[in-house]
Task: inverse folding
């Protein structure tokens, strides 16, 4: 009987020790990121005494996954907000404002044509034209600088993602090995959940349970990052069309999956680039093109103070002379030898120019190219070509295309960075009308046409130059405002998700303190059982002897 009592007491001591160890571990990890409080289950033995089961963690997988999802959503909105605030400040700020520079240019034109023989006021027109082209250049450079920053973000994010997925595959291996040996590993499971949460900060992912306690991890687009004990790296690759714009591929493939990336800071940066940064670069380029071409067109139809035909004020002159291939970008996946050039024909109408990109695809079955305007998905031209006229510009293809070959057409992208002024002199500003019967020094009729451009609906056929820039400000400001509201809302949802997870899994000081006392008392009581058994056994021995 005393031997049975001693055994029961020893079981009680061991059970209390296990409880004290788990409680102490919980208290020690109260501030550990991602730690879930642990518990040890005790149950009555069939032959008297107590038995302890393995240590397990208190975790609600719905709450854990919800926290991971909300982390991804918040980081995406935060990235978009930070980037759009920089762009909004650039576009709407008073320093180096394109709108103000356009106003100053036309103010100097109006002043000059009030006395067309005054070379001093004419010189101010040239000075303001140079300043305006410089502002266009500076804005474009800043936009491209943000493009470069996003490239850096992509590179650093991919490095972090690959490191995290490697860690997840290793944790899966350790957890699977423990499962095969019948062991529980709550600490490793916590580490894995925390790594997935950190991964969610970078990019949107979802998980699926696998065998032996492992989990598989997938991008929101469906590509597997972790399958059991194997991780697949993401790669940074040059853009399919624009080699200066970085994209992402996976595994051994070089095909971009950037369009399938969403969530996290990486998804936010890519979405921002595609939804607002690139369109803004196009819009600023469109404004620079329509402005410079309109001014040049008016001046070239007039006569200067020397009685000579008017000359262009801005360079590059587009009409009939601007032929480029770097605005027709071939896919890196093309198999054919076809290439293309873009030209603005003589006398083209700037009001027909859009800020959109265009997608071109060749179908060998029909022997035709199809040209689609990206902004609205409209098919704007098709046929065997090789020459096409689209929204004010001409396209010409040469070489032999293969089936499925594609091209990206960017008529206005970054043109603001190309704009400059010619070496025209103040006397060569053609303010007089061609064929004028009056003294050219007193004729300002062509100069008045130049001044009238300020309020003409030229951009997109409906907006003045300043109105077009106001629309750019509105587009960027609207995007930034939506990003701010989304960030604020998602911050609240993230905080709520964290609270829900913590309400289940977080360590409570009060609860653990109570458990500490409970297990201490149980330990002392079990020790008393052992002492009582020993005393009983001693009494029996004494009676027998």
Result:
């Amino acid at each position: 009987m005393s031997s049975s009592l001693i055994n029961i007491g020893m079981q009680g001591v061991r059970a209390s020790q296990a409880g004290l160890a788990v409680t102490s571990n919980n208290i020690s990890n109260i501030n550990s990121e991602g730690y879930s409080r642990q518990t040890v289950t005790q149950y009555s033995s069939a032959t008297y005494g107590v038995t302890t089961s393995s240590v397990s963690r208190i975790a609600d997988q719905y709450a854990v996954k919800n926290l991971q999802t909300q982390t991804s959503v918040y980081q995406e909105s935060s990235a978009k907000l930070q980037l759009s605030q920089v762009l909004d400040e650039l576009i709407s700020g008073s320093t180096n404002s394109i709108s103000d520079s356009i106003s100053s240019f036309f103010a100097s034109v109006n002043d000059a044509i009030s006395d067309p023989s005054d070379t001093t006021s004419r010189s101010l027109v040239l000075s303001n034209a140079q300043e305006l082209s410089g502002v266009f250049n500076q804005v474009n450079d800043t936009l491209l600088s943000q493009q470069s920053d996003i490239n850096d973000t992509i590179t650093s994010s991919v490095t972090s993602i690959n490191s995290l997925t490697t860690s997840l595959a290793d944790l899966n291996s350790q957890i699977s090995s423990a499962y095969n040996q019948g062991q529980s590993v709550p600490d490793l499971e916590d580490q894995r959940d925390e790594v997935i949460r950190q991964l969610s900060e970078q990019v949107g992912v979802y998980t699926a349970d696998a065998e032996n306690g492992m989990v598989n991890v997938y991008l929101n687009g469906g590509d597997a990052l972790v399958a059991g004990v194997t991780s697949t790296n993401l790669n940074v690759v040059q853009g399919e069309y624009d080699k200066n714009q970085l994209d992402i591929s996976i595994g051994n493939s070089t095909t971009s999956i950037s369009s399938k990336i969403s969530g996290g800071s990486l998804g936010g940066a890519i979405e921002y680039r595609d939804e607002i940064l690139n369109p803004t670069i196009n819009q600023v380029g469109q404004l620079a093109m329509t402005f410079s071409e309109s001014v040049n067109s008016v001046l070239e139809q007039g006569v200067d103070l020397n009685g000579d035909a008017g000359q262009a004020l801005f360079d590059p002159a587009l009409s009939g002379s601007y032929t480029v291939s770097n605005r027709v970008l071939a896919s890196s996946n093309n198999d054919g030898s076809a290439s293309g050039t873009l030209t603005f024909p003589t006398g083209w109408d700037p009001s027909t120019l859009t800020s959109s990109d265009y997608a071109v695809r060749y179908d060998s079955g029909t022997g035709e190219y199809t040209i689609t305007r990206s902004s609205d998905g409209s098919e704007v031209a098709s046929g065997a070509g090789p020459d096409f006229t689209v929204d004010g510009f001409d396209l010409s293809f040469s070489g032999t295309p293969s089936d499925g070959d594609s091209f990206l057409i960017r008529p206005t992208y970054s043109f603001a960075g190309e704009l400059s002024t010619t070496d025209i002199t103040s006397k060569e500003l053609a303010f007089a009308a061609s064929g004028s019967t009056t003294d050219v020094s007193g004729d300002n009729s062509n100069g008045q046409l130049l001044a009238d451009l300020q309020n003409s609906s030229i951009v997109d056929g409906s907006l003045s130059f300043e109105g077009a820039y106001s629309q750019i400000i509105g587009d960027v400001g609207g995007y930034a405002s939506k990003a701010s509201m989304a960030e604020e809302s998602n911050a609240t949802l993230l905080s709520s998700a964290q609270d829900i997870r913590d309400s289940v899994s977080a360590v409570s000081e009060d609860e653990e303190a109570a458990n500490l006392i409970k297990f201490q008392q149980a330990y002392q009581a079990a020790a008393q059982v052992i002492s009582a058994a020993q005393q009983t056994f001693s009494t029996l021995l004494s009676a027998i002897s």
About this structure: The mean pLDDT is 90. The CA atoms of residues 65 and 206 lie 8 Å apart. The radius of gyration is 36 Å.
